[in-house]
Amino acid sequence: MINISINGRLVQAEEGEFLLTVMKRNGFKAPALCHHEAVEPYGGCRLCMVEISKPQWKGWKDLVVSCLYPVSADLEVQTDSEAVIQERKTVLHLLLARNPHTKEIKDLAAEYGIVRSKYQEVAEPDDCILCAICTRICDAMGFSAISLVNRGHGREVAPPLNEPPPDCTGCLACALNCPTNYIKYTDNGMTREIWGKTFEMLRDPQTGMPTITRVFAEYLTKHREIPEEYFGLGDESHRKRTARNFGKIAAWTREETVREEA
Amino acid sequence: MTEATTTTAATRKITSVKDLEKLRREHKAENDKYPKQVMVCCGTGCLANGAAQLVEAFHKALDEREIKDFEVKAIKETGCHGFCEQGPLVVIEPKGIFYTKVKPRDIPEIIEKSIESDEVIEKHLYVDPRDGKKIECYGEVSFFKHQERIALRNLGKIAAHSIGDYIAVGGYQAIAKALTKLTPDEVIEEVDQANLRGRGGGGFPAGRKWRTCRDVEADEHFVICNGDEGDPGAFMDRSIMEGDPHAVLEGMMIAAYAVGARRGFIYVREEYPLAVLHLQKAIDDCHEYGLLGENILGTDFSFDIRIARGAGAFVCGESSALMKSVAGLVGEPREKYIRSVIKGLWGKPTVLNNVETYVNVPVVINKGAKWFTSIGCENNSGTKAFSLVGKVRNTGLIEVAMGTTLREIIYDIGRGILNDRPFKAVQTGGPSGGCLPESMLDLPVDFDSLTKAGSMMGSGGMIVMDDRTCMVDVARYFLQFLVSESCGKCVPCREGLYQLHQMTIAVCEGRAEESDLEKIEELSDVVVKASLCGLGKSGPNPVLSTLRYFRDEWEAHIREKRCPAGVCRELITYTVNEKCTGCVACITACAYNAITGEKKQPHFIHQDRCTKCGACVAVCRYDAIDVA
Amino acid sequence: MTATAKLQHDFSKLPEIFERHPQDDSSLIMILQDIQKEYRYLPCEALKLTAEQLQLPLSKVFSVATFYNAFSLNPKGEKVVRVCMGTACHIRGADLILDQISNHLGIKEGETTEDGKFSLEVVACVGACAMAPVVIVNDHYHGSVKVSGAKRLVKDK
Amino acid sequence: MNMRFEVTPNLCIGCRTCELACSFTHTIEGKQARSRIYPLDGGLKDLWVPVVCLQCDDPACVKSCLVDAIKFNVDTGAYEIDDEVCVRCMACVAACPFGCSLFDSHQNRVVKCDLCGGDPACAKFCPTQALTYKSALSHAG
Question: What is the pLDDT of residue C2?
Fold first, then answer.
């Protein structure tokens, strides 16, 4: 256990823990657009930068991304110093120039009093902020169906060869975790369509409620040894079936106790 | 890399220091047998000027004359002397007669006069552009005289891909000494004492890096050589990898022995095919001689090197991106709060040094730290190789002791500015460096003073600019390069450099106002502080250094919509003046047929069609076109 | 979105390319380079076969194929004309030479002529800075190219 | 982990107090939560079975979670879903053979019984002791 100070308050942490985790645990906030707990910190959006220094650095200060900075003893952190705010505002101006119509970016910028970007808006803006949460989650889940293609300013999220991705199981994790809802999909309970690929949904035979896509279930059966029949019913029907099964046991024990008392 | 199993190879395999010494004497005798050796430079530059045909012509001519083997059989295809502009170069040893711009048709005369007898042919001699003197001997040429070559020691002196030549000049003595006389810690101590700082541009002491890596507990350590050399305008590493590949391998072996690595990689950029060829041959030869693979020189040290070819990405010069590229992934850097000496390639402790750093290592081990620190200046020992290019008379590869001033380099070695135009600036450190004005000419060139002056040592590109270069245009050029090379991972670099580039274009096109200057400076500061890797952190340096030393030019573009150097196309107009002799050269050169006029009559430039590309000025021999 | 050409090729040479390199994902870049050299671009089919061969997700192979300058998803011309725009060449007027050549061939940088004979590309420094400005046609280097001489480099005999 | 959560269906009278207690305990910022426990028809007259996560030894939900969002809490003996890690792919909801991994559309998160961090509200309020949370050692044989 070590002690570090954040905005003057002493807090406890493990040596090497990420600074953002320690901050969040103690109620300190910092915007972190490209951060998602399901995957390793990325350090792409640079919005979570904070100012750090140490007594032995004799006044020298540094800006670091808190999502990736490993804390060490007697670290002094300023989460809203003047340099931090200036950096954060400039990054927000840059993001607003790239995504001028994206609600989440406009809201975050408004928190810092920014309405319009002071830089020139890009030609065809869209809602993708290239935080790579979608591609990293897809990798973490073992599918790696989509990835970041091209390099630099023209970078974008895309399925391979711009064709429907062969490895996609239609789990929607990319679309559901995209901070700006940029990834489009349709899901009408019968079929699901994403990245130009259509998936058949497994549905509960009694209630007709959809559960997950057939491809996804097959993947889980093959790679995570989940017996195929588990996917035969929706959760509601599973609960009913469980109640009746345990009911049989309860009924049997009830007769036993009656017989013993008699 | 399986061992060559053929018997002949087995016999050549050396398994002890004694064998190495025996081999050295054999190969030295082999070379000394010839009273004269002809060194033909076969670096990329000279090959482009026809050096290969030269070598064939030499062999053919010698066979026709049946000059016996022992007299002058040794035609050596050497590495790049660094003086490519004067190529193809031929040096006749032992006297070092230096012939420039040699063509195949000159071969018979050279053989007859300079080889069969000792005559020197005047017309091939190097003429010093400053005083017109003809200089005979290689060592006397001003370009080479002021140089001190450690990293480039063997360039032009040994056949580029001959392990025999390398061993003959003392090659692999250093690894032999390290393996048999020094412990890994003593090797590190020697390199630390020598204060050999990273020649890739960062200047981080190699000894300290090796020690940190060695102290990390892991089942595998790696040693990597950074041959990406992405800086435009720099080609030191190319010449070393082409001309002296074995020195690179030996340096890596010593590093591997020091940190306990069994596997090494050389990362070579895709634009250097010849370097890949020569390095691969050198690796294969080492396997044959038993200098790579299992139990090198009979010790329990085993090491193997594999070439990883880059594929065209400047960002892969950055350490963590390079390691991703070696692992076959996209070259996207990672935040380095945990340095790659602790967790690098595939998560293992990895030492990454530049080509030039590694070729210094054998010399440090052989001659010792005390000798090495006697060269160079305080806290910057040894020498540094530069590629002196741009508007300087003698362009090429040079190596000078640390602390040599810019003036000595540009004027003593470079012999001043092309066509005697006034010096304006010198750019060092590649896209991450800065432009230094005339007032900084007496700045000693070493890591610390360059950084203090707002530039950077970088890998060693040194681009000289004259008054016809617009500094705002230079900043725009570097930004365009960096925007196209940014990996696109982090916002300050991907978006920040893009916006800086747009704003600089606006300045060049006269669309900018006063407030833009302030916006550029403020954004530059944030990009430097907030970017993830070196590309972004140093990307704004060209802008910041040109604003610091040439602010008047930026203001001229903004306030008066004028480009003092006459480069920015939107702000200049080309007009034919009275000196025009009607020679039609510019009409043919103009790709937009914006110039009309009859032969021998003064020509006329139509402003509506003229794109201000400057082709006419380039071809006009009568200085008849004004740029305003 | 990058356009991907769908030309038919015989991929008989692929196994031979695969043999040259160790069977692990660190060979991906070098295998793609050999394919680029063999077919003058990276056919989609070849990317799929490479992904299977190295047991890599196709998305990883596609990211690498679009990240590095050396790779092209569209067929290049028989003659690839590369104008070096490194700093030394830029200072010595490489942009004028690019103008001349692109006008002569009628294509812009990054494009290929209709008849597939020439591709015009810009490269940032090939390490021949002492002979700036430099133009490379396939593997042949031309040094100290003059503005007037630029057109001659791309005269197809 | 010496406490044991025990369900005795025979004592259950189907009063649904446990549902109420579970929902209230997991309400966050005024957003009412969905209950993780459901007393359902056991198939016989007056026979109710409170269906709730059994904290299996080899849980299908943990195996089906491709981002390891479900972790075992050693102190309470319960498997807990880390909502910040969960990517809402619904694999666990589909895979649980007892249907005890549920989607709470009101709070837009996947939920399951986490034994209220070691003090299950349902056991506390169950009027008939059908649900109990006792120390395993003191349990009469």
Answer: 43
> Using one digit for the tens of pLDDT, what is the confidence trace for B141-179?
888 888 889 999 998 888 888 899 999 999 999 999 999
Ramachandran assignment for A162, one of left (phi > 0), alpha (psi -120 to 50 degrees), beta (any other): left
Residues B495, A153: C-beta atoms closer than 8 Å: yes
Name the amino acid, one letter, at B351. V
Which residues, given as ranges, of chain C have pLDDT below 70?
1-8, 156-157
Chain C interface disruption, residue of A139, A146, A149, most C CBs within 10 A: A149
Pick the CATH number of B573-627 from 3.40.50.10940, 3.30.70.20, 1.10.8.50, 3.10.180.10: 3.30.70.20
Residues B222-255 pLDDT 10s:
999 999 988 888 889 999 999 999 999 999 999 9
Domain with CATH 3.10.20.740 in chain A: 2-81
Yes or no, beta carbons of B491 and A152 under 8 Å apart:
no
State the DSSP code for C13. Answer: H
Structure confidence at residue D138 (pLDDT): 59
pLDDT at C78: 86
Task: Give the pair of three-digit tokens for residue B96.
Answer: 């070092």
Closest CA to A248 of D49, D39, D7: D49
Domain at C79-154, CATH class = alpha beta
pLDDT at D122 over 60: yes
Tokens of D97: 């053979």
Question: Averaged over B51-80, what is the pLDDT?
Answer: 76
Inter-residue contact C42 to C114 (CB < 8 Å): no
| A21 shares contact with chain D (CB less than 8 Å) | no
| Per-residue pLDDT, C116 | 85
* D19-28 contacts at long range (C-beta below 8 A, 24 or more positions apart): D20/D125, D21/D121, D21/D122, D21/D124, D21/D125, D22/D113, D22/D121, D22/D122, D24/D121, D25/D116, D25/D121, D26/D111, D28/D107
- Fold that domain B376-469 belongs to in CATH: Ubiquitin-like (UB roll) (3.10.20)
Instruction: Show me where the domains of chain C are located.
Output: 10-67, 79-154
End-to-end CA distance of chain B: 63
Identify the band that residue B527 occupies on the pLDDT scale cut at 50, 70 and 90: very high
Domain extents for chain B? 34-145, 163-373, 376-469, 472-559, 573-627
List the subunits that have 3+ CB pairs under 8 angstroms with B: A, C
Confidence of residue B590 (pLDDT cuts 50, 70, 90): confident
Whether A91 sits inside 8 A of B484 (CB atoms) is no
Is there a contact between C59 and A162 if contact means CB atoms under 8 Å apart? Answer: no
Could C57 and A167 be called an inter-chain contact, meaning their C-beta atoms sit closer than 8 Å? yes
Six-digit token string for B186? 């003593």
Task: Say which range, A94-108, B104-118, B504-518, has the weakest mean pLDDT.
Answer: B104-118
Structure tokens at C82: 């590369």
Q: Is the pLDDT of residue B1 over 60?
A: no
Q: What is the mean pLDDT of residues B274-297?
A: 93
Nearest CB to B499; choose among A63, A87, A119:
A119
Whether residue B423 lies within 8 A of chain C, CB to CB, comes out as no
Task: Classify domain B163-373 by CATH architecture.
Answer: 3-Layer(aba) Sandwich (3.40)
Query: Is A2-81 in CATH node 3.40.50.150?
Result: no
- Mean pLDDT value across residues A72-100: 96
- CATH fold label, B472-559: de novo design (two linked rop proteins) (1.20.1440)
Task: Let me know if domain B34-145 sits in CATH 3.40.30.10.
Answer: yes
Q: What residue in B sits closest to C22 (Cα-Cα)?
A: B1
Return the number of CB contacts < 8 Å for A and C: 48
Of A91, A97, A151, the CB nearest to B488: A151
Whether A160 has its CB under 8 Å from any CB of chain C: the answer is yes
Residue-wise pLDDT for D19-64, tens only, equals 999 999 999 888 889 999 999 998 888 889 999 999 999 999 999 9
Instruction: Enumerate neighbours of A (3 or more CB pairs within 8 A).
Output: B, C, D
Instruction: Match 């003036």 to its residue by tokens.
Output: B407
Chain D contacts of A247, Cβ < 8 Å? 9, 41-44, 47, 49
Are 3 or more Cβ–Cβ pairs between D and C shorter than 8 Å? no
Give the distance from residue A251's alpha carbon to the nearest chain D alpha carbon, in angstroms: 7
Taking the Cβ of residue A256 and every Cβ of chain D, the question of whether any pair is shorter than 8 Å is answered with no
Which of C29, C37, C136 best tests the B interface by mutation, with the highest count of B CBs <10 A?
A: C29
